[in-house]
Write a structure and sequence with these properties.
single chain; alpha/beta; 4-stranded parallel β-sheet; globular; binds pyridoxal-5'-phosphate
Length: 390
């Protein structure tokens, strides 16, 4: 189909070609202040008519590496449904992605883009999953992957990265520090950055989940989703899911955007606090707190996609919920023992969040929990939930 693809700044409407080296909006990125979310985040836009029934993406299908990312199962956790009288509860199980997390959706598009443009090296900072994901997809694509990772990252994630053959640079400090170091490196070397939110394709790649949820619910004879519970750290999965639903609305494949619930740990809740505040833009994030939670994948001090995610939540009437570490670990056990799905603590915030608000949601409405990462990625945290030392 005759499609034209470009980046557009949602703030000032400037447009840019989708090319290596283009990350942020030149004009809006000038507002950037230290210790604040990224300014000038770009969105992928198109003109033209996508082929019916397909997921329109800005890189042609032939460039995607040979590894089965996405099309993860959507299923009904029957015993949890019974226990909580929730006949319309669904799980979107993204632990089934090749590296065990949702992040593969973004890595897949970034790797396709790198292939199309002859880019050889991709670099990123990560709390663990983005790096193990890029390393896995990069291995399938034959890319060199360099990752900056906090030295504290869970062992399983570090081992995955090394097994996939990526270069691991341990950072003595937080994810936020790793993020800055990786940007210095990509600026200097000209390598492609896959930093989450900074590279707009990381948001675009994640939109596929919305298409799959809508298609799979339809196939199952269920209605379009009314609520989707999303674990949130930087807010890229949240924004990516919104992007997918916005696309689907534009294409006439849904009639309304579902209520997205941003589920955060109490100890890492910048987006929830920003949504509750009277401020917008970077001002809503002017009070950063050091993060502290058992859910390492959603532990961020400054959510890189905070401003963009906040704008989307406000625009579409999204909600936020915070849950304590003990609620997260209890939800992890409830999910595993009640459905057979062993999820990371970060992912278990989706169930913990739903458990907290479920009584306010009419029983007939369709709720989808986005389960983003496998429990095997952080066995130590899971042991904590069982009261075991490990
Ligand atoms: C990265 C990640 C999240 C959070 O995604 P953000 O885009 O940072 O909000 C949630 N769960 C898992 C397993 C992740 O790896």
């Amino acid at each position: 189909m005759n499609m034209k693809w470009f980046y557009r700044c949602p703030t000032c409407e400037a447009t840019y070609d989708i090319l290596p080296g283009r990350y942020l909006c030149d004009r809006c990125a000038r507002r950037q202040m230290p210790e604040r979310p990224l300014e000038g985040i770009l969105e992928v836009e198109w003109e033209g008519d996508p082929a019916p029934g397909t997921i329109p993406l800005p890189v042609e299908a032939a460039w995607f590496p040979p590894i089965p990312v996405g099309r993860t199962p959507l299923w009904s956790p029957v015993r949890i449904r019974h226990e909580f009288h929730a006949p319309n509860l669904w799980i979107k199980d993204d632990t089934c992605n090749p590296s065990g997390s949702f992040k593969d959706r973004a890595s897949f598009l970034v790797a396709a883009f790198a292939g199309k443009h002859g880019v050889k090296e991709t670099v990123l900072a990560s709390t663990g999953n983005a790096a193990s994901s890029m390393a896995a997809v990069g291995a399938a694509a034959g890319l060199n992957i360099k990752v900056f990772l906090p030295a504290q990252a869970p062992l399983a994630k570090r081992i995955q990265i090394l097994q996939y053959g990526a270069e691991l640079i341990p950072v003595d400090g937080s994810y936020d520090k790793a993020f800055d170091l990786s940007l210095e490196y990509s600026d200097r070397s000209g390598s492609l950055s896959r930093n989450t939110a900074y590279n707009p394709l990381t948001i675009e790649g994640k939109k596929t989940v919305a298409y799959e949820i809508v298609d799979d619910l339809k196939e199952a004879g269920a209605s379009t989703p009314d609520h989707v519970f999303v674990p949130v750290g930087d807010g890229v999965i949240l924004a990516g899911a919104y992007r997918g639903f916005e696309n689907l609305l534009r294409l006439g494949r849904i009639r309304k955007i579902p209520t997205l619930w941003a589920c955060q740990a109490e100890g890492s809740s910048a987006i929830a606090r920003a949504l509750a505040s009277a401020y917008s833009g970077a001002e809503a994030f002017c009070d950063p707190l050091p993060s502290s939670t058992v859910a390492d994948s959603i532990a961020v001090d400054v959510p890189r996609n905070g401003v963009h995610a906040l704008t989307k939540l406000r625009k579409h009437g999204g909600r936020a919920i915070t849950v304590s570490d003990s609620e997260i670990l209890a939800a992890q056990k409830t999910l595993a023992s009640g459905s057979g799905l062993f999820a990371e603590p970060s992912s278990s915030t989706a169930l913990a969040g739903w458990l907290k608000v479920r009584e306010s949601i009419p029983v007939g409405e369709t709720c989808v929990l986005l389960i983003t990462g496998s429990g095997l990625k952080d066995v130590k945290a899971a042991a904590l939930g069982l009261g075991l030392a490990c």
